[in-house]
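input
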Amino acid sequence: MKRTLIAGAICVSFLAGAAFADRVRDWHDLDDVHDHIVAAIHDMEHAQKANHYDMGGHAAKAEEHLRAAERELHDAIEWAHRH
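output
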């Protein structure tokens, strides 16, 4: 289960990257991706609490990357609102 959540979190991170690869036409698309990343963060936190271990630091690193992606998407959405 934990591996699945971590794999899912990594996939969401790649999807966020793909969202930035194309020209942004609608900030609502970014908002949807942001919501998915926030959900992945919550799933990651739940998996870490349920399993009482961190898989050699990899789960913490995945969570760190998800939080970084969340911050970048937040900034991108704010930028899109202004332009």
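quick obs: Helices lie at 2-21, 27-51, 58-82.
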